[in-house]
C-alpha cells in the first residue's frame, strides 16, 4: 500500500512550494494535479474551444491521452505525447483551468489518472479536491490557506522575481478572488476543507515554518 499526503487549498496559498519540499524531504513523489487541469485548458484553448463550452470541451476530451512523467525530478504533463508543461504556468491558463475544471467529465478523467498514480506510488498531491474527493482515505490531509490579500502579495513577488514588469496588485487580487469563488462554488467536487483535514492558515507563517509544521504531522 502506498501512502499519500493531500494538500488542498485556494490559489496562491503556497501548496506547490510546500508540497515539493515535503516530497523531497520524505523522498517521495510530488504530484501537481493543477498542472493536469492546466494541460486540458491549454489544449482546448489551442483548438479554439472556450473553457466554459461544456459540449465543445466534452467533444474533444476523448482525444486527450494524458501522461504525467518525471524528467530530472521535474513533473511534465504530456498530452498525446507532447510536453505542454512550458506553456501552462500563466495567469490566463490558471483561470481557464479553473473554468474547465467545473466540467464533471474533465474531473472524472483526471481523477482517474490521479488515483492510479497515488495507488502505486507514495506521494504528496496538491490540488482542490484531493482530501475530499480524490483520496478521502489519504494518510494526511492538509488544507493550506492564507488571506486573499497575502496570497496576492506572494503571487506579485513571485512574478516580479521572474522579471515580469508592471505587475498590478489589484488585478492579481481580483483574479484570486474570482478563482476562489469559482473553485469553491462549482457543483462537482468543489474546494472545501475535507473531513479530517488539518487547517493551516499561513498568512503569518513563512515557508520554513509551514514545512516544519507539516513534517511534524508526518509521523506514520
Ligand atoms: O493549483 P493550480 O492553480 O495549478 O490549479 C489550476 C486550476 O485547476 C484551479 O483553479 C482549479 C483546478 N483544479 C481543480 O479543480 N482540482 C485540482 N485538484 C487541482 C486544480
UniProtKB/TrEMBL annotation:
Entry protein name: Cytidylate kinase
Keyword set, alphabetical order: ATP-binding, Cytoplasm, Kinase, Nucleotide-binding, Transferase
Leading EC class: transferase
Gene: cmk
Single GO MF descriptor: ATP binding
UniProt domain Cytidylate kinase: residue ranges: 5-218
GO biological process entries: nucleobase-containing small molecule interconversion; pyrimidine nucleotide metabolic process
Family matches, as PANTHER family: CYTIDYLATE KINASE, CYTIDYLATE KINASE/PANTOATE-BETA-ALANINE LIGASE
CDD domains: CMPK
EC number: 2.7.4.25
InterPro entries: Cytidylate_kin, Cytidylate_kinase_dom, P-loop_NTPase
GO cellular component, one term: cytosol
Family: Belongs to the cytidylate kinase family. Type 1 subfamily.
Annotated ATP binding sites: 9-17
Catalytic activity, reaction form: dCMP + ATP = dCDP + ADP; CMP + ATP = CDP + ADP
One Pfam family matching this protein: Cytidylate_kin
Amino acid at each position: 500500500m502506498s501512502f499519500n499526503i493531500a494538500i488542498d487549498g485556494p490559489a496562491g496559498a503556497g501548496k506547490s512550494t510546500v508540497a515539493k519540499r515535503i516530497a523531497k524531504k520524505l523522498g517521495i513523489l510530488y504530484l501537481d494535479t493543477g498542472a493536469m487541469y492546466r494541460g486540458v485548458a491549454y489544449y482546448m484553448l489551442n483548438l479554439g474551444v472556450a473553457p466554459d463550452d461544456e459540449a465543445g470541451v466534452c467533444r474533444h476530451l476523448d482525444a486527450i491521452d494524458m501522461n504525467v512523467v518525471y524528467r530530472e525530478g521535474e513533473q511534465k504533463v504530456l498530452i498525446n505525447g507532447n510536453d505542454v508543461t512550458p506553456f501552462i504556468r500563466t495567469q490566463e491558463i490558471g483561470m481557464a483551468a479553473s473554468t474547465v475544471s467545473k466540467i464533471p467529465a474533465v474531473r472524472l478523467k483526471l481523477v482517474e489518472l490521479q488515483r492510479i498514480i497515488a495507488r502505486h506510488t507514495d506521494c504528496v498531491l496538491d490540488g482542490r479536491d484531493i482530501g475530499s474527493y480524490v483520496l478521502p482515505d489519504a494518510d494526511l490531509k492538509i488544507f493550506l490557506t492564507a488571506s486573499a490579500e497575502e496570497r496576492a502579495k506572494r503571487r506579485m513577488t513571485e512574478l516580479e522575481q521572474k522579471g515580469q514588469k508592471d505587475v498590478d496588485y489589484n488585478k492579481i487580487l481580483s483574479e484570486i478572488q474570482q478563482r476562489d469563488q469559482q473553485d469553491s462554488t462549482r457543483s462537482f467536487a468543489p474546494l472545501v476543507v475535507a473531513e479530517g483535514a488539518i487547517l493551516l492558515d499561513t498568512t503569518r507563517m513563512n515557508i520554513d515554518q509551514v514545512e516544519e509544521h507539516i513534517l511534524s504531522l508526518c509521523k506514520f
